[in-house]
Amino acid sequence: GNSVTQMEGPVTLSEEAFLTINCTYTATGYPSLFWYVQYPGEGLQLLLKATKADDKGSNKGFEATYRKETTSFHLEKGSVQVSDSAVYFCALSDYNQGGKLIFGQGTELSVKP
Amino acid sequence: KAGVTQTPRYLIKTRGQQVTLSCSPISGHRSVSWYQQTPGQGLQFLFEYFSETQRNKGNFPGRFSGRQFSNSRSEMNVSTLELGDSALYLCASSSSARVASYEQYFGPGTRLTVT
């Protein structure tokens, strides 16, 4: 079945450091890939998405490229801020399963000033 | 445009009781999905409704049920509550149930505590 695997956290970085959160997936079809972010006490917010191979999603300085050959969708940001501290979830959605999202386990990011 | 709203935000129930959670999707969205979030199991899909019909269901016992009304508002019900049902229940809405690339927009969740 379909699945998503993320690097384990927590990840602690200093402000302005480079961020990479690894995400790999297993899917039988042609999934769409998403990154969601969850701030403390809140629901999930869509950060970015990519719907086909080689697509790059980007938003608020974050970006991720859909790599079909390595089945990966790693999240990157060149310079993190304290306000980026949150839990990040990688997810996939497969046409064969409608809008059902399958999530990775989440990676907690803590950015120190 | 108003976002997804969920009520109540917090709920405390006793084992054996039942509970009903409500979700109002973004105006114009006809698809509503429910997810359970726990520290141990992470985010798990419960079910999805589109135009009052359940289109997809996750691997949860029959104690978990839901429905959708003609105005797209949705409710989920959990009967005979167990301690393990304590979780954050998230509702998400989307404009389509069949296009995987469509974004899902999440509400703030209902925090259910079972004692």
Task: Describe, in plain words, how this protein is organized in 3D.
The complex is a heterodimer of chains A (113) and B (115). Chain A is an all-beta fold and 113 residues long. Helices cover 0% and strands 50% of the residues of chain A. The model of chain A has no long low-confidence stretch (mean pLDDT 93). By secondary structure, chain B is mainly β. Helix content of chain B is 0%, strand content 52%. Chain B has no helices and eleven strands. In chain B, a hairpin with a 5-residue loop joins strand 7 and strand 8 (74-78). The chains are: A mainly beta (113), B mainly beta (115). The interface between A and B is medium-sized, with 25 and 28 residues.
Helical residue percent band of chain B: under 10%
Tally of helical runs of chain A: 0
Q: How would you classify the helix and strand content of chain B by structural class?
A: mainly beta
Number of distinct beta strands of chain A:
12
Strand content of chain A: over 45%
The biggest sheet of chain B amounts to: 7 strands, mixed
Structural class assignment of chain A: mainly beta
Task: Please tell me what the overall shape of chain A is.
Answer: globular
Distance between the termini of chain B: 37 Å
Show unreliable segments of chain A: none
Rg calculated over all Cα atoms of chain A: 14 Å
Number of helices of chain B: 0
Sheet with most strands of chain A: 6 strands, mixed
- The general outline of chain B is globular
Low-confidence stretches of chain B: none
Helix and strand element order of chain B:
EEEEEEEEEEE
Give the rounded overall mean pLDDT of chain B.
Answer: 93
Chain-averaged pLDDT of chain A: 93
Please compute the radius of gyration of chain B using only Cα atoms.
Answer: 13 Å
State the oligomer. heterodimer
